[in-house]
């Protein structure tokens, strides 16, 4: 798997360079969220439809990308074939371009206020079929940094819900392929400020099955008032 052979060329730059780059991209994605949130756009209660609204209305639109955090330097696409799965959002740096394998991935998951601590709820789904996809090598991690976006489709206390998600990180879970998985946290999900006017951003670190360490960023986007 590509994850097991993280390209040594990334160490030509410090890890902090890629953290800063990814956080800059996330600031642009937060602006995208705020635009959708203020537009009153109706959204279906469907992960792919919400993601596509972000991509098609903003992240793949040149004038939006030019206006916000140099997003024009990145190519955004969806459903990219990735190891054994398909990435929800791939972010490929094009200026400068490194190679076809040098990109970031964002996994998107819906979150609701049902069964918050249960094994069949969407919080558990966020971990076993979200975070664990990076830990197991289902998704690659060229830079050792990737992200997740939680689409909040029913209103609840987002900060409190992070505690519920964290409760699953040390548990052995069964993913959608019937495989036993564990998020193997080094640092559980904790708040981090990425943008001064956006509260719900977080980060976590995990050990992978190939004994590497990865950092995941988490953004929680509240679309509960816009879901049809």
Compose a concise summary of this entry.
With 228 residues, this protein is an alpha+beta fold. The chain has one domain.
Structure description:
The structure is a single chain. The protein starts with 14 loop residues before the first helix and ends in a 6-residue tail after the last strand. The chain is of the alpha+beta class and 228 residues long. It has one domain (7-187, 202-222). α1 (15-39) crosses α2 (47-59). The chain is built from five helices and eleven strands, in the order αααβββββαβαβββββ. β5, α4 and β6 (145-152) form a beta-alpha-beta unit. It has helices at residues 15-39, 47-59, 62-67, 122-135, 158-166, and strands at 74-77, 80-82, 85-87, 89-93, 104-111, 145-152, 173-174, 180-181, 185-191, 201-207, 213-222.
**Whole-angstrom Rg:** 17 Å
Strand order of the largest sheet: 1-4-5-6-11-10-9
Give the terminus-to-terminus CA distance.
40 Å
Structural shape = globular
What is the count of DSSP helices, taking H or I runs of 4+ residues?
Answer: 5
Supply the number of structural domains: 1
**What is the average of the pLDDT values?**
92
| Structural class by helix and strand composition | alpha+beta
- The helix-strand sequence is HHHEEEEEHEHEEEEE
Strand content: 25-35%
Number of strands: 11
Biggest pleated sheet: 7 strands, mixed
Unreliable residue stretches: 1-12
Assign a percent range to the helix content: 25-40%
């Amino acid at each position: 798997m590509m994850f097991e052979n993280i390209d040594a060329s990334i160490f030509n730059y410090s890890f902090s360079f890629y953290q800063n780059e990814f956080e800059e991209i996330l600031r642009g994605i937060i602006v995208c969220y705020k635009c959708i949130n203020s537009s009153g756009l109706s959204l279906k209660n469907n992960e792919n439809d919400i993601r596509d609204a972000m991509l098609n209305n903003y992240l793949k639109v040149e004038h939006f990308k030019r206006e916000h955090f140099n997003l024009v330097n990145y190519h955004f696409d969806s459903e990219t074939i990735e190891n054994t799965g398909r990435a929800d959002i791939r972010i490929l740096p094009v200026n400068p371009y490194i190679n076809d394998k040098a990109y970031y991935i964002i996994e998107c998951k819906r979150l609701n206020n049902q069964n918050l601590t249960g094994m069949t709820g969407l919080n558990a789904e966020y971990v076993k079929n979200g975070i664990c996809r990076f830990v197991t090598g289902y998704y690659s991690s060229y830079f050792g940094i990737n992200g997740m976006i939680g689409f909040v489709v029913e209103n609840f206390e987002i900060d409190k819900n992070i505690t519920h998600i964290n409760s699953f990180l040390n548990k052995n879970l069964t993913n959608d392929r019937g495989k036993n998985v564990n998020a193997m946290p080094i640092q559980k999900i904790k708040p981090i400020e990425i943008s001064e006017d956006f509260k719900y951003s977080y980060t976590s670190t995990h050990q992978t099955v190939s004994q590497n360490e990865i950092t995941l960023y988490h953004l929680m986007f509240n679309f509960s008032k816009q879901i049809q």
